[in-house]
Amino acid sequence: MTNANVANVTIRPEEAAHFGELAREWWNPKGPMASLHQVNPVRLRYIRDAVDRHWGGDIRESTPLAGKLALDIGCGAGLACEPLARLGADVTGIDAAGENVSAAAAHAEAVGLDIRYMAGELASLNVGAFDLVTCLEVVEHVADKPAFLAEVAASLKPDGLLVMSTPNRTAASRLLLVGAAEAVGYVPKGTHDWSDFVTPEELEALLADAGLTMSEPTGIAWRPDKSLHLGEDLSLNYIVTARKT
After folding, report:
1. What pLDDT does residue 178 have?
2. Which residues contact 233 (CB under 8 A, 6 or more apart)?
3. pTM value?
């Protein structure tokens, strides 16, 4: 399959357009992307712990990614890229929507961070290989998951670390992440198609086909007394690491 064909089947133009329309409000913590602002600290805690375990780092070190290359796939306006840069990484962010990349670059410049942003399909950008690859709430939006994950795996160095998070396809996620969340405006209408959600078992098999071994999943759950948190409840959302087999 050529790069052009992969690009045609991986990016959904309607998905890119949907998220591109939200670019101006991406950094507003009370705007339409408020849910991402709330979950981002939870995901970053997981990433930091995974980085320390993978490279045997000191948890007191403020820049554990110094000297490492990091790639955030589906970066939006840079909510994960900027913290990764502050952890010391040389960061590249790519997104299907040019509007998001423009917003991300402008925000990074305003806060004094040097981050490379690129718009388009991963397969056609020739970005190279990275020590750390993050792909957060992205795989549920792509048209051809096997083709996409093959490209994700190709972007990972042999001893690199992949971190992925995605909604689980359960009755609870259908009710809460799609029905209720979109009804009350917690996420913009049209953000999710429940049938595209991936279960942990499906993701493990997809990653295995791409030559990657997945960790045990950790849930990203919500409770009134704990808000969003990491735990054993996988019913809504989960996060994993993967390494080359």
Report:
1. 81
2. 219, 221
3. 0.90
Amino acid at 218: T
Q: How many CB atoms lie within 10 A of CB 193?
A: 12
- CATH number, domain of 98, equals 3.40.50.150
Domain that holds residue 67: 3-244
- Report the pLDDT value the prediction gives residue 154, as an integer from 0 to 100: 97
With beta carbons less than 8 A apart as the criterion, state whether 165 and 239 touch. yes
Q: What angle is formed at CA 165 by the lines to CA 168 and CA 24, rounded to 5 degrees? A: 110
Q: Which of these, 119, 190, 128, lies nearest to 154 by C-alpha position?
A: 128
Q: How much is the mean pLDDT over the chain?
A: 90
Q: How far apart are CA 27 and CA 12, in angstroms?
A: 23
Domain count, the chain: 1
